[in-house]
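Support reply, case 0932

Customer input (verbatim):
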Amino acid sequence: MQIWLSTLGFGLVDAAVLAVAAVGFTLQFGVTNYVNFAYGDLITFGAFMAFFAGGAPFGLPIWQSLMVAAVLTGALSFAVGRFVFTPFFQRRPQLLFALAMTFAASLILSSVWGAIWGGQYRELTYGGEQVHSLGPFVATTAELLFVVVALAALLGVHLLLSQTKLGRTMRAMSDDRNLAIACGLNIRRTTNLTWLITGLLAGTAGVIQAMQVHTFNTNIGSTYVFLIITAAVLGGIGRPYGAVIGATIIGVTSQLAVLVVGAALSPVVVFLILVFLMVARPTGIFGATGRTSTFGTA
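Our regenerated output:
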């Protein structure tokens, strides 16, 4: 029983890390209605920005490195969304063109990262290897840091959506974009801020993901994005709270499955659960939002 509870704790840590990225991805879709395949490359950018901020000549502590990485990734996300995606989708709003555009952006960014930083692995660690016992759970200081950062980010998103005018506008656009436009809401400003906010989340997720795996290269985001999309779809694409539930299911299931089928087949179990849930509830646990046939303009 102890090993199951300990493994459950590791699954909750994985879920916290995944939830930050999944919420950013699904929030971006809910507001803009763009399926952004380049989201994983933003995560890669955030991880590398934290690595360079913490190394010579800057030598920033991990908290400051994380904030620098999040801000720079948010700025990159804003620039790509505002000056690349939005003008393109205003001319070509059809689904196929939008998917091709974000996929092309992902290939371009991935190639740029590879050309700049190469394929060698970098190391990003916090140094918190002290082990703590929390009831039946066991976690290192670094793992507790991941959870604290993730909970802070998710709490910030919750407060944004529930307590601010911007958050209410984002929810209105997610529920019915045409009605939001008819009500005179500032769609363009909200879309631009959404690119910025989701970029902040991507940068944060990149840092804590890199710290969790310790060593990483330019593939960290492209390999992680499949789990992000799975969590978003599982919870209901466009639903931030659904993404948290989806991430929790994936994180816990993937860890517990190791005890049953082994590490090699653990991802298979995760995707089998996704298939079964999608058959039973195609729109996800919380129900999907957004329009999937065409993309609205900003």
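We compared this against your earlier run and they match. Two observations from our side: The first strand starts at residue 122 and ends at 123. DSSP finds eleven helices and four strands in the chain. Please reopen the case if you see a mismatch on your end.
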